[in-house]
Amino acid sequence: MTLEAGIPLGVGFRVLSDGPGDSAARVAPEVTVGDYRDLDTLRAFARGCDVLTFDHEHVPAAHLRALEAEGVTLRPGAAALIHAQDKGVMRARLTELGIPCPRHRIVDGPEDVRRFAEADEGAAGWPVVLKTVRGGYDGKGVWVVRSAEAARATEDPFRAGVPVLAEELVDFTRELAAGVVRSPHGQAVAYPVVESVQVDGVCDTVIAPAPGLPEPLALHAQELALRVAKELDVTGHLAVELFETADGRLLVNELAMRPHNTGHWTQDGAVTSQFANHLRAVLDLPLGDPRPRAPWTVMTNVLGGDYPDLYPAFLHCMARDPGLKIHLYGKDVKPGRKVGHVTAFGADLDEVRERARHAADYLRGVIDE
Amino acid sequence: MTLEAGIPLGVGFRVLSDGPGDSAARVAPEVTVGDYRDLDTLRAFARGCDVLTFDHEHVPAAHLRALEAEGVTLRPGAAALIHAQDKGVMRARLTELGIPCPRHRIVDGPEDVRRFAEADEGAAGWPVVLKTVRGGYDGKGVWVVRSAEAARATEDPFRAGVPVLAEELVDFTRELAAGVVRSPHGQAVAYPVVESVQVDGVCDTVIAPAPGLPEPLALHAQELALRVAKELDVTGHLAVELFETADGRLLVNELAMRPHNTGHWTQDGAVTSQFANHLRAVLDLPLGDPRPRAPWTVMTNVLGGDYPDLYPAFLHCMARDPGLKIHLYGKDVKPGRKVGHVTAFGADLDEVRERARHAADYLRGVIDE
């Protein structure tokens, strides 16, 4: 999707890919197949690139620092990206900045989880959420522990050899996301704050703008995201995932420093997409207008389901709803895997939401009319 | 631009290109460099493609017929495409269908031009427009002859070894274009009729929808284009370029059977772009909604001008107008060459038009603020 946005900008791409089946590799004019965990592969790849950017945060932090020390331009830079790579570093830094987060602490074993829940000053209580500080995504690397007994039996998080972060389970009313884009010389734009509906720890639907969000709270979320982008010296797109609580507070859940699933709606719903603005930022070009083009835009992820071949369902959805925007990633379909998304926009939220829902369910095989 | 539209559809592309500097070759994952005038090159290229489509009409008609005879799927097919390749065939067929065209006749030399202007039944009068039936575009292969004396001195058109079509010079008030897309099983959609402003025989600006066009005339233009698409069995995008006369008539000027400059506004201005709908048609997928997304959309071509390097001007235009959509083609800049286009949209036509105009002029070096 970033390559797609780069075409009108005349940007030349080289993609470092896991393998030829990779989504980006299928559409890129120049592909290097290699392991992003290998420093020499990264070095060779970077040679001749003006700037390196990312579509995931799994490149080892030490490699990123090494590349920068050797003069490679990374955007975002290693010192910013570490906050999207390591939840421990992120929590410490945001807390230092006075940005509201769930109560949290690094814990070293089951007994320490119990202390975090029951004995610490301002103890978090049960349940407690445990997260490995690195390597988790889409609900992976996350455990919910509901009692001291359960904590005693909880060994998995401590086996990975990665520090474990304990957090209070926030009693949120919904999840929001604030997307901002910042360029190296400090220009920044903020997209409308969206509601992100999660199912089984995976983003299912994004509604732009977040329905019923009071204007002051929306502004607060945008300001918070712009401040994080500035303080952490982020370049490119930053998604700040937030919990909204019943008493009107916003707590930061996660950060992502790349085009993000909560911003996919911008492709069809904003004047400038997150992908185009990410590229503009990464290249230090002036940023584009982030405003919405329709009163409501709804994006729903398409997960792999019963159909190994999406084509017939795809055809049905196009015929049923000519205004629907379908984005397929060219991935092989596996159950539960994000293989694409659909976006609908219009003036009536219920109708727009139903159109996106219907198409995603049909493509997954949940409904067949 | 077609490749860009194909990414979300998951379409795999192979591009036959003149050379590695070609716009499409710069962004395509698979490029064959070869001569489209060579039948064996075309044969080898077609092997393994599900369907072949075109971004120009210069592939020799005989080669297209040969490929079809060998079982290659062309969309549009050779029998349709000939009407965009040969103005003589196009005029004969449209006249047979009763579709209004300028008075016209194939002429065999200067004296025959005089007869066409002065002696034929319903003589066209002076000036007369001469066009080679094949190979012309953007004002090339076109001559305006203003008198019998001038006709006697007009030898160039008759030197090319290609039949020459004489046409009356229509006293039009403006040029319009009706874009339609038709799929192999006969579904069709019509875009809003646009005004196409030509400068020196080259499309300069397109305004969507055509300002002040009476609704019945707009409908008439759309119906006419849909009828041409059906009667000629066009698949994919068809642009019908029209003359609007002071007495409210519409005469067909040219046909193009591919995504066309008069439809570039749809990328940013319509729910489904001409490129996406061309692909959907070519693949016999259900077509997308052609309706506009803003009250006014204006596209202005960027011609190569004083700046061999567009980058600094590009940066200025982005900074000045964050809502402007810039599309660069990755071509080397040569004076007068179309190197990109800019699109603006909004509620106020004068403002939208001025934004597009300003950016195109700035990129060309006509103004520098």
Automatic annotation (TrEMBL), chains A, B:
Its EC number is 6.3.4.18. InterPro entries: ATP-grasp, ATP-grasp_carboxylate-amine, ATP_grasp_subdomain_1, PreATP-grasp_dom_sf, PurK, PurK_C, PurT/PurK_preATP-grasp, Rudment_hybrid_motif. GO terms for molecular function: 5-(carboxyamino)imidazole ribonucleotide synthase activity. It is an enzyme of class 6 (ligase). Keywords: ATP-binding, Ligase, Nucleotide-binding, Purine biosynthesis. The keyword Transferase does not apply. Residues 91-283 form the ATP-grasp domain. Pfam families: ATP-grasp, PurK_C, RS_preATP-grasp-like. SUPFAM superfamilies: Glutathione synthetase ATP-binding domain-like, PreATP-grasp domain, Rudiment single hybrid motif. It catalyses: 5-amino-1-(5-phospho-beta-D-ribosyl)imidazole + hydrogencarbonate + ATP = 5-carboxyamino-1-(5-phospho-D-ribosyl)imidazole + ADP + phosphate + 2 H(+). Gene3D superfamilies: 3.40.50.20, ATP-grasp fold, A domain (3.30.1490.20), ATP-grasp fold, B domain (3.30.470.20). ATP binds at K87, K131, E167, E168, L169, V170, E175, N253, E254. Pathway: Purine metabolism; IMP biosynthesis via de novo pathway; 5-amino-1-(5-phospho-D-ribosyl)imidazole-4-carboxylate from 5-amino-1-(5-phospho-D-ribosyl)imidazole (N5-CAIR route): step 1/2. Homodimer. PANTHER family: PHOSPHORIBOSYLAMINOIMIDAZOLE CARBOXYLASE, PURINE BIOSYNTHESIS PROTEIN 6/7, PUR6/7. Catalyzes the ATP-dependent conversion of 5-aminoimidazole ribonucleotide (AIR) and HCO(3)(-) to N5-carboxyaminoimidazole ribonucleotide (N5-CAIR). Belongs to the PurK/PurT family. This is N5-carboxyaminoimidazole ribonucleotide synthase. It comes from Streptomyces boetiae. The gene is purK.
